[in-house]
Amino acid sequence: IGIFGNVQQQTLEIVYDVAGEKLGFGYGGCS
Amino acid sequence: RKNMESHFHTLQLTSLLPSSSCNPTTKGKRGGASMEVVNSHGPCSKLNQEGAKASSMTEILAHDQARVDSIQARVTTQNYDLFRKKDKISNKNRAKDSKVNLPVQPGISIGTGNYIVTIGIGTPKKDLSLIFDTGSDLTWTQCQPCVKSCYAQLQPFFDPSSSSTYSNISCTSTACSGLKSATGNNPGCSSSNCIYGIQYGDSSFSLGFFAKDKLTLTPTDVFDGFMFGCGQNNRGLFGKTAGLIGLARDPLSIVSQTAAKFEKYFSYCLPTRRGTNGHLTFGNKNGAKSTIQFTPFTLSQGTSFYFVDVLGISVGGKALSISPMLFKNAGTIIDSGTVITRLPSTAYNNLRSTFQQFMTRYPRAPNLSLLDTCYNLSNYTSISIPKISFNFNGNTNVNLDPNGILLTNGVSQVCLAFAGNGDDDS
Fold first, then answer.
1. What is the pLDDT of residue B195?
2. Is the ipTM, as predicted for this complex, more than 0.90?
3. Which of B22, B226, B232, B424 fits a disulfide with B147 by CB distance 3.0 to 4.6 angstroms?
4. Looking at CA atoms only, how far is residue B80 from chain A in angstroms?
């Protein structure tokens, strides 16, 4: 399997809507 | 010029280098059940101070490969079991499965490129800094009296006898039975107390009482009866943390145990080794930002990992010529504990060659462990690198931050932060 690792996740806002079965990406999550 | 701005990052090299000072600007300002996340190797990590020997980048990448190997083995093993049970395996796959080397150790490796979050357990609450892991389920911490063994941690060990709300969980409880799926191991029983054991792919392990106590995320987000591991025998690559917080999908994960309030919704931002202001936030109190793009999870694959569908990758505005089926055949998970993104071999080779074409002006440097596209940027203060974006199912395009494209081991060894798997689909 491929793995999207934590270096690539840096500074992104990563949203886990587990009940809604979806993953979100946004920018500037650490600002 | 417009093309350059659209498809390239032009940046100061210093923006990729670790910082030696911690200067958070938004600490405490974020709403909801939000906690600070720090990079264990970054300037804001207390675990990275007080004379602690820092891991080298080579060590971090070696441990990262151990984690990836164990994730691959865990997924392969589960698929292998599913195939055997359902007997629907094709002859082609049957031949492949016969070559699978099952891991000596179950579970996944901890790795050392970790992020840390602090939670409170007990009454009165004790703050515990735990490894932040979306790839495992059970939350555990080292507990006194450390009957067998504990590794050195920065904070005092959690002492159950000092908490008025602590209790051990009975062997006969449903929760105790649930440890099998959360840890991969059958629970034990000692004097009617449920015993958990979790072993990771690098031989790290934790074993102790399965217990419950009050969990405090923030002063207004407090959960009675939170179930966690109270470790009496712990060894491995946990650094100086107090244990691990499991953010995967099993009913015993913190995500499931707080579902009544947070509805299995959480978000985070992982800071760079230079930056600060990382967070882990439970719930959707403020509503999702309209700028968030969503891609569906593929949650039916028998593990607690979070699977997503990658459809394509662009480098410098150029869509790589890769069939979406390549990604679909292999599958992709998102994992907070793996450092470097792993791609199917063919996809990585394509990404690497395209990236190199855009970087010919810069002198090359030796490989850094599993990273094979490195540059010596000693003579540069400003660089221009191609943007890399991922296209996920749901028309979701994600442009990576420059820190997600290059990993630095000093200015003389700046490397493309991707690696390939050994095979496209096994």
1. 97
2. yes
3. B232
4. 14
